Amino acid sequence: MHWLFLLMAVGALYLGFSVTSTPVMVMSLLASLVLFLLWIVSWYARRIGESSQDPSQMIDPAELRRLREVAEARRNAAPPTEPPAS
Question: Domain residue spans in the chain?
């Protein structure tokens, strides 16, 4: 979708340079500027959207609490009965 903004911006720029009427030239150059800005913003939004984390894979607070309790239980577990080999 964002490539359509770029194509329309190039078309408006071409129209602005090829027309002989000053008001039409100004309007098409302004339209080209706006379309270029829309292209940049939509391209950036798409790039950010691709790299963002999937919210369905985030850990909810209850699961995080359970994982902390499991880690705490492992930490507080009795040390092994055999001494480490030296």
Answer: 1-51
